[in-house]
Amino acid sequence: MADALRKIDLDMQRQGVRPDVINTHLTGAIVQAAIEQKDESILDVALMDRTGSKGEKIPGPGMTMDGRKTIDDARIKIRKLKQGDQDRQRELEDELKKADRARISQSAMADGFAAFKAGKGFTISPRDLEDANKLDPDFAKDLLEIQQKMNTYNSGTEDSVARAELEAKAANGILTESELMLAVKQNQLRDPVAISKLFDSLPHHSGRGAAGPRHADQRWRQFHLNIVKEWLGHTNISTTMRYAHLAPDNLRSAMEALDS
Q1: Which end of the chain has fewer surrounding CB within 10 Å, N or C?
Q2: From CA 41, how far away is CA 63, in angstroms rounded?
Q3: Domain boundaries of the chain, sorted by first residue
């Protein structure tokens, strides 16, 4: 680039072009190249002495007052462009981390429920825990906490009489969501498959309610956040939202896998 600019500079001098016009032209070309390549070092070319048409040394085209301002403005612009690139890169990395977190969460919940179904307790695989730890050690701790609390919750004995009453109400179409939620809170119902099936029997979930399927799906999401809240022993739903990536969709798919 320096050689090409030197040639243009000398040609313009020989043609008698005014020095201020030459300086503006050369500075503009240097600034354009620097911005396109997001490289501040290119701007230094405009500050270097150059050779005149008679072999004399003359200041660089960017050494004038206007030239220095143009160079300084270009530096600021390049830094902003670089910052924007860095911000976009961080956003991309964050999105990739979220995707990895969701993938690990889904696998962990599916494996945990599969082990639960096989009578081994809710067990998250070492592979998922290792992947979670690589992504974020706190994430791995969260999964271990979920494993412990799920097993603690599901280790108790259900109230078979209360469950039978709930199933009878469901069969007659008179079971309400509040009754089902109360049974979970009172530890009368612990089996996630039974909870899922009873919720599916509710009129609003099946789409028979006036609000329709879309509202039913929203109710499903809220209901399962509340279920996870009870399973994890949280007193506030805002705490449970830390685990929102585990519910409702991943939790729902894991529960449905138990029926297969």
Answers
A1: C
A2: 15
A3: 2-63, 83-153, 156-258
